[in-house]
Design a protein that fits this description.
Shape: globular
Order of helices and strands: HHHH
Number of helices: 4
Distance between the termini: 21 Å
Helix content: 55-70%
């Protein structure tokens, strides 16, 4: 994993698979909807800022999962999506471990989504 803190130009080796259309095969045309829903779920649960803790990362993965389920009207995650969320959680934890002041909405959530989308594309094939 590239330990760079340049969050806007990360290259995880997933080509163009981290775009907002990465979950279109699940009926989610715009991944920014998942980011928005995840953010508001976190805020509703009392998490309005990023914390580099295991507890926060668990909540982030859970909020993303619930957002995905709501967006797709599904009752459970497909195995490849669950694996992508788990791996995105781990990578986001490493990426932001030394950045307790990282902006949740503008930096952490988009990075989490890019990781989840990239892993999703790799695992669905």
């Amino acid at each position: 994993m590239d330990e760079s803190t340049d969050h806007t130009n990360r290259d995880d080796g997933t080509d163009d698979c981290t775009t907002t259309a990465s979950f279109d095969d699940h009926g989610i045309d715009d991944g920014s909807e998942l980011i928005r829903r995840t953010y508001y779920r976190l805020v509703a649960d009392g998490w309005d800022s990023f914390e580099p803790t295991e507890r926060f990362l668990d909540r982030l993965a859970d909020a993303f999962t619930r957002s995905y389920l709501t967006a797709t009207d599904a009752y459970e995650l497909p195995p490849h999506v669950a694996a992508a969320v788990d791996d995105a959680r781990a990578w986001a934890g490493v990426e932001f471990a030394d950045e307790p002041d990282a902006d949740l909405r503008g930096t952490v959530l988009p990075a989490f989504y890019r990781h989840a989308a990239g892993f999703h594309c790799a695992y669905r094939d």
